[in-house]
């Protein structure tokens, strides 16, 4: 979706973006809330999914990832948006290290309008989006009929094809961690 924003006589194009959020260290819920508030400073946030919990193989419930997806609009270009997301991650204590390892916060650009790009720094749509139930489930909650710009399936259709969708549950602070 493309919007046009008029700002001080300058026309800026706004693009709908979907950002994946995840945390598995410390107070995961508080970290995700903080990340959303920080994202509100750079993105016009329109929707945020519920929180979902997913324990990848080898993890116990205490360090299971809690994930969400945010929809918003931005006038930032993709690499500018990536730089801003990385600033937020660093400010919240993220240190690059073990791939798929523990992290206080993880922010990923999932979709940027219908853009398709591949560079050393960034690939859009996110290259593993269609394989990850922990991203597809919250994304399907807020944008079930959204079409993947490369695969031409809706998010709901992609979710129905992943094997581990039943392993991703709504986060219940009293019942799962």
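Sequence proposed for the structure above (177 residues):
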């Amino acid at each position: 979706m493309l919007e046009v924003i008029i700002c001080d006589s300058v026309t800026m194009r706004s693009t709908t973006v979907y950002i994946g959020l995840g945390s598995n260290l410390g107070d995961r819920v508080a970290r995700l809330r903080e990340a959303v508030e920080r994202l509100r400073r750079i993105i016009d946030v329109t929707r945020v999914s519920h929180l979902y919990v997913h324990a990848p193989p080898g993890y116990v419930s205490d360090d299971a990832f809690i994930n969400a997806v945010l929809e918003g609009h931005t006038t930032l270009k993709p690499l500018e948006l990536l730089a801003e997301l990385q600033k937020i991650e660093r400010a919240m204590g993220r240190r690059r290290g073990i791939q798929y390892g523990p992290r206080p916060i993880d922010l990923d650009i999932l979709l940027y309008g219908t853009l398709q790009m591949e560079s050393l720094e960034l690939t859009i749509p996110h290259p593993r989006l269609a394989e990850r139930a922990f991203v597809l489930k919250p994304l399907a909650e807020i944008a079930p009929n959204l079409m993947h710009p490369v695969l031409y399936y809706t998010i709901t259709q992609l979710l129905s094809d992943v094997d581990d969708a039943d392993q991703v549950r709504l986060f219940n602070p009293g019942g799962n961690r």
